[in-house]
Amino acid sequence: IAADGTVLADSQHDASSMENHLTRPEVQAALQQASGVGVSVRTSSTLDRDYAYFAQEVKDASRTSYVYRVAIPLEELNSESRHLLIAIGAAALLTLAFTFIPIYLIFRQFSGTIRQMVAGARRFAESDLQHRIERPGSSELGDLADAFNHMAVQLGRQINQLRAQRNELQAIHQSMNSGLIALDLQQHLLSANRSAEQILQIDGLASRGRLLHEVVREPDLHRFVANAIEQPASLTREFSLARDPDVVIEAVSQPLRDADDKPVGLLVLLNDVSQLRRLEAIRTDFAANVSHELRTPITNIKGYVETMLDVGVDDPEQARQFLRVIQRNTDRLAAIIEDLLALARLEQPDAEKAIEKERVPARQIIDHVLAQFEPSIRERTINIRLETDPDLSVLVNTSLIEQALGNLLSNSIRYSPPSTTITIRARKRDNQWIEFAIRDQGQGIAPEHLERIFERFYRVDKARSREVGGTGLGLSIVKHIARAHDGQVEVDSELGKGSEFRLLLPVS
Ligand code: ADP
């Protein structure tokens, strides 16, 4: 088509008979548009069919414009595009197949590995920390598996550490000498160590989770716990147990708090202080006794010195008599102080280790003691009978054992009437003990006093003891000397017939 609309040539019709095409929209568009392309879909006026027209402007060497036009019936175009669509669809399907099958295969392998890792992680969560996840081929997942395995090793190490710490704490908790119980705010027993079980006489395991007052019937403890739960600070109380009033308990409370410092329960420490309180009472008694024992001779000495100062010393006989009383009392003071010092030495905590021992014949010890008391034996015409194994020897601290046997012998001499017999025996007993026994035919001791005569300052008859120069400490010293040798003292006595004291020392 020329630029003026004249049809120059047509593939299907005779061009000379065709009308001018300048007004055709596609021709107009091709000539006007910068792109030189025109498209139009419409019914052909000549053929009465729907056509799609495509026009393209071209220029020749002299820059004269021409338009080429193609007319395609729409039906034909539709069937063409259907073929095209099928081809495109098939290509798309093929592309999909080629793309997704490898992706699916990769995904399947990937999800298998992930499943394996999830299973491994689950075993870790169920505390199977010995398990190891197999390292897959892919390096990223391999790193993940390594990280999981490393985490399991670390967790295992930390759990072992925590377990060791817990066992240590449990061992300390169980082996504590003090009783320890933990309660919640409603007073349910959460735990009780062995000492607490013993003090409260409960079965810790069976009592766990039960209310304290259901398992323990100790009103003072319940009062203490009820008080302590109300208190934000630690509380201390001392009380005797209802089941045994001789047992004195010191209870110390400590509130239990959670991580947010909220009170969640109570720790109660139970200390059996019975022994301590008993010792304190003994000590107080002892101090009172010592003061009392010292006061009597000092009062006597003071009295006689004052009298002598008042009346003068003109009468030498009277003065001598006063001085004799003063001498007796100073002797008594000296004896008490000597005995107190001996006891203090023996009561030192490491007295047992400190004493030096040597092997000596038993007979030699007895001979020494007899020689020491020879004057009073003679004075009271006491007969001594010896029943000693001549080959017997003992490993002892000689001076201490001589002191102990001396105390026993002097008691026998003092508390026996004149002209009676004292038997001294030394022998091996049950292959376990070396036994020294001193038997007299004296006044004997009533059964109710037997248990107490080894206490300090305990005397059956105070006046009589003082009269014969006793301090009330002699048997207490004997008991301590026996203990310092890992030995013991025994006594058998019958009122009016006599007594037998036995000092037992271990064979080796
Ligand atoms: P004391 O210095 O008073 O003798 P001891 O501790 O040696 O003190 O003895 C305590 C008490 O035991 C004595 O006061 C006495 O009553 C009694 N006693 C000890 N030995 C004998 C004995 N052989 N015969 C009778 N009574 C004894």
Q: Would you give an account of this structure?
A:
The protein has 508 residues and is α+β, with helices and mostly antiparallel strands. 50% of the residues lie in helices and 21% in strands. It contains 15 helices and 15 strands. It has helices spanning 25-32, 74-125, 139-175, 194-200, 204-207, 212-215, 219-230, 274-311, 316-346, 351-354, 362-379, 398-414, 447-450, 462-467, 474-484, and strands at residues 37-43, 50-59, 65-73, 179-184, 189-192, 235-240, 248-257, 263-272, 358-361, 383-388, 393-396, 421-429, 433-439, 488-494, 498-506. The strands form four sheets. A five-stranded antiparallel beta sheet has the order 5-4-8-7-6, sandwiched between helices. Strands 10-12-13-15-14 form a five-stranded mixed beta sheet, covered by helices on one side. A three-stranded antiparallel beta sheet has the order 1-2-3. A hairpin with a 4-residue loop joins β4 (179-184) and β5 (189-192). It is rod-shaped and about 195 Å long. The relative contact order is 0.05. The structure holds adenosine-5'-diphosphate (ADP). Adenosine-5'-diphosphate binds next to α12 and α15.
